[in-house]
Design brief:
single chain; mainly alpha; Peroxidase
Length: 83
């Protein structure tokens, strides 16, 4: 995976949930969403973003969760972003 533009954030060893997810993914040699670095760096600030995302993707909606994931993946691909 290419390095981020924010090297200090990527290098930060978070102690919370996302820091642990990053460590596990790295140990297993698996790619992971880069936004996890931001969540590990500033968990208090990014909790609201995480809650918002979960509500949008999993909360009540006329669209199924699978359809919402497909829309997100399509949008990410169009922005040359790994989903």
């Amino acid at each position: 995976m290419d390095p981020m533009f924010l090297k200090g954030i990527e290098a930060y060893e978070g102690t919370g949930h996302y820091g642990e997810l990053i460590r596990r993914a790295r140990e297993a040699g698996r790619p992971f969403p880069r936004i996890w670095h931001l969540f590990a760096f500033k968990p208090k600030v990014t909790n609201a973003l995480s809650e918002f995302t979960q509500e949008v993707m999993r909360g009540p909606s006329p669209l199924s969760a699978g359809m919402r994931e497909l829309i997100a993946a399509f949008t990410s691909r169009g922005n040359f972003c790994l989903f």
